[in-house]
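Sharing a chain and its predicted structure for anyone who wants a worked example. Both blocks are below, sequence first, tokens second.
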Amino acid sequence: MGLQMRMWVLVALMFAILYGIIVALGTFAGVHDPYAYIVMAVVIVGLQYLVGPNLVGLMMRVRYVSEDEEPDLHQMVAELAEKAGIPKPRVGISEVSIPNAFAFGRSIRDGRVCVTRGIQQLLNRNELRAVLGHEIMHLKSRDMIVITFLSVIPLVCWYAAWSLMFRPSRRDEHGANYAALVGLGAFAMYFISNLLVLYGSRIREYYADEGSVRLGNPPNQLATALYKLVYGSARLRNDPRAQHDLHRAEGIRAFFVNDVANASREIADLRQVDRDYSGTISENELLSLRSQSVRLKGAEHMMELFTTHPNMLKRIRRLATLA
């Protein structure tokens, strides 16, 4: 199934879960009470929509730069945005050591693309351009907005479960039993919807990778960039000076190109791709992955279910099919 179709199926499934919870609460609480949960969801989404970009910029110490300060960076972003058919986003530098990039904003016209000082020191121009193409595609597909809306549904499920399971009931025994049953169902839906949100987050990473290639970036350049980002992130885990930046980014690592928390585990898998140990992934090395199947071990497959990004070896294997 295409990545866009998967995302739409996910959206439909998530709102079906929300509808089921509201119907159950309506049956339990009366006609008017379910609207309180809808209002709560709208309020949470509205706050995330309005305040979210400012919080991301503050947490990541983003400083927006002019063309005079970063002419090459501005040129790459402008070219990629024009190819993608979107307005040129604002360009920022994040003063953190983590090598990475991220895109965020309230809409396409409010889009912001930021790179860290660490990634500028780690990647060459072609590799950085491939990463910027990935971030531009996040803005073009509006997946940040979709994930924001979806992430509210687990919160509603959790609130419903907490309200019904952990608050004393003043109803009769039958009503209390029904409340406990609905609360248990809401808790189960909280767990399932959380997994679905993470699944949606992983889908959008695949889609942004493909989009970067469609913008003219060779797949092996993006594969090399991902490889270097994993290596750079893994190296930071042993740097005491970088621990503060890693903790700072913990709450928003879903915005990053790769999951810095999993870098140490992924680097071992990626060494088998870099056969000549050059620190890059050549076109031939990438093409050789086409005939290989990537199967995760049981534990790794289970761990991927709880991550915001796909397994990096699987991502690079998918890039091989685009080469």
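Comments welcome. The mean pLDDT is 83.
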